[in-house]
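Chapter summary example.
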Amino acid sequence: ASVEVVAAASVEPLLQLNELLDQSSQIEARTVCARVCDSGNLKRVLGLLRIADSDATQHALRLVGNMASDAVDAHAPITKRRLLELGAFELVVPHLWSDDVNTVCYALGALQNMSTIVGSAELLSGRDIVERMWELSRSEDEWTAAFAKGTLHNMRALLCNVAKMQEMQFSSRSEGDETGADEMDEIAGGE
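The structure predicted for these 191 residues follows.
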């Protein structure tokens, strides 16, 4: 099947999943997200980020952003880990340079929601990505600017938390104290 046929066939289910998540309670959304992950469909969704179809790409980016949102799914940290393992960051980042403002906004939304787990800040801290985020944070489009600022905020907060965890680990080792583990878990967001 051609890429266009695959993309066209994929848009409607993505649209339905996004609408379902938009209208679901957090408990229902958690179930939907878990089913997408457990069924292997998360890989398929991420695969759509590799094709040049703006509708499929936007719906896939929106779904990734929704699934990584703590406001949508109480178990989002698990989904974020899964996304990290499946290479979602590497697939979403190129869309920051899209000519389509909607694609850029959905990419920023997905990155903003995914950039709260340890391991993500390192993937986003490349010079060209940070420069692009700063550029987008000054966009005339208010949604683009807001999502870029939110992503930068999350990256900064995460890097500060990682530094605190490393400091606590160093202090614990030098003092022979193992009590810092609970505090480190709390700083890392309970993961």
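To summarize the output: Residues 1-8 have pLDDT under 50 and may be disordered.
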